[in-house]
Specification:
- This protein has helices spanning about 5-10, 15-20, 50-60, 85-90, 120-125, 145-155, 180-190, 200-205, 230-235, 245-255, 255-265, 285-295, 300-315; strands at about 25-30, 65-70, 95-100, 130-135, 160-165, 175, 195-200, 240, 270.
- It is an alpha/beta fold and about 325 residues long.
- It has a single domain (about 35-315), classed as TIM Barrel, CATH 3.20.20.140.
- The strands form 2 sheets. Strands 4, 5, 6, 7, 8 and 9 form a 6-stranded parallel beta sheet that branches. A 3-stranded parallel beta sheet has the order 1-2-3.
- Helix 12 crosses helix 13 (about 300-315).
- It starts with a helix and ends with a helix.
- About 45% of the residues are buried.
Length: about 325
């Protein structure tokens, strides 16, 4: 039963003696975008980071190594982050890029919604890929092409990390309506498929008072009960959350008291990540989690799981 002692610790903080036994965890970054060498700037001027650059960032933030996520869809400058590069980064920089996910656009192969995508997934899996992502295809989540991708990921036992986007031009990521009704149907239809949610639209709905026009933003202030993100995590065993980027960090840091409770409740379903897309990016969540554990606002167990152990369980079995 959980946990009168934890609630007490959260309220009073740790004693000086208890703080002395805090040990910072070397984190695993579930959401890394690394390029083997510097390339052209993206449309917004950012440049993906090299292994040398991200190593310096990792050392500053207490991160051991990351999981490389390639990009395969034309909506997001796919040629800078290929599956082949991801595999080679793990081979060449194993102390910085420890694992890789593969990625494929559901229009690959025959460009038909019944393409045998397992043909590709099994090849990548045999070569060490631990999952699929970051999926950025700008198609509705209930599109037959997307449904085919979900089916084959489930058949191949490959978790899928997705970016939620908007319909039409100017955005990337799979498309769902406000309150994510199609995502819920996917969770029901593919119960053995582990889905890992990410992006502003996923995390903005943490609060029950989120308005539709706020979905692509970083809402501030107190979190109101009834948020759709919380409901999906609570109701579906195959729904998980990626805490990377400003969206994931903001979701738990905007209202610390709620954030602590959220991390405690979903301690087995959350992954630390960075989503660094430029050398100028910062990662406030890393030190925030350290501080939360040091002060007793979250338990040491929760801290270790979210920062490291959940990722290792996913990556190593």
């Amino acid at each position: 039963m959980r946990k009168p002692a934890r609630r007490k610790n959260r309220k009073r903080g740790l004693s000086e003696k208890e703080r002395m036994i805090f040990v910072a965890v070397q984190k695993i970054d579930l959401h890394a975008h690394v390029v083997p060498e510097p390339g052209y700037a993206r449309a917004n001027g950012d440049r993906f980071v090299t292994p040398q650059q991200i190593r310096k960032m990792y050392d500053a933030w207490g991160i051991e190594k990351g999981v490389q996520l390639p990009i395969s869809s034309p909506e997001y400058e796919c040629d800078q982050l290929s599956n082949r590069d991801a595999e080679h980064l793990v081979r060449d920089w194993p102390d910085t890029v420890g694992w890789w996910f593969c990625n494929l656009d559901p229009r690959w192969g025959t460009n038909l919604p019944d393409c045998d995508l397992s043909h590709y997934l099994l090849y990548f899996k045999e070569h060490g890929a631990k999952g699929v992502g970051e999926v950025t295809t700008n198609l509705p989540i209930d599109d037959p092409y997307m449904q085919n991708l979900f089916y084959h990921c489930e058949q191949c036992e490959m978790p899928l990390l997705f970016h939620t986007g908007s319909r039409g031009g100017g955005d990337y990521g799979i498309v769902d309506d406000f309150h994510m009704p199609q995502l819920e149907r996917v969770l029901q239809k593919f119960p053995r498929l582990r889905l890992i949610g990410h992006s502003q639209k996923w995390w903005a709905e943490m609060s029950g008072d989120c308005a539709e026009e706020q979905r692509n933003d970083y809402p501030s202030g107190k979190v109101v009960p009834g948020g759709r993100t919380v409901e999906l995590l609570r109701n579906y065993p195959n729904m998980y959350g990626d805490l990377s980027a400003g969206s994931g960090g903001n979701a738990v840091m905007r209202d610390p008291e709620f954030g602590y409770r959220f991390l405690e409740e979903f301690q087995d379903k959350l992954y630390f990540g960075t989503d660094i897309c430029d050398a100028s990016n910062v990662m406030e969540l890393s030190h925030w989690l350290d501080d939360a554990a040091k002060r007793g606002n979250i338990s040491q167990t929760v801290y270790r799981k979210i920062c490291r152990e959940n990722a290792l369980r996913l990556l190593q079995g």
